[in-house]
Amino acid sequence: MDRDAIVQHLLAQAQWTASRSSGPGGQRRDKVETRAELTVTAESLAGLAPPVAARLAERWQLDQRPLRITSQAERSLARNQEIAAARLAELVAEALAPPPAPRRPTRPSRAQREARLAGKSIRSVVKRLRQRPAERE
Predict the structure, then answer these.
(1) What is the CATH number of the domain that holds 44?
(2) 3-36: burial string, b at 16+ Cβ within 10 Å, e else
(3) Residue 28 forms part of a structural domain
(4) pTM of the model
(5) pLDDT single digits (tens) 53-71
């Protein structure tokens, strides 16, 4: 099952709600519900492949709380629903991405160590030259 099919399944199973947006919009804002909220619960994952469903549930912590995606950026409910669906697609892509490769610790090369020690000795000479002549040695 590819990511687009997973997103379409989740959009079909999830619950949409609309409410009044905050912010500017004039008289229309006070009577039109344009804020879109998409709620994905653990039950919404039914029908997906078990490993995919388990990974999404773990990443989104659906056992503790549902995933809520809201959008009120636009003045149209349909456009806000499109934005929320796009965010869901991004979250699915993040959750299904393979984990990054483990970091292998590296050691500084001989040239890097020598350069660091040379810098330290130059710095010590500079500080020694700043002292009063009687204190130098």
Answers:
(1) 3.30.160.20
(2) eeebbebbbeebeeeeeebeeeeeeeeeeeebbb
(3) yes
(4) 0.70
(5) 999 999 999 999 999 999 9
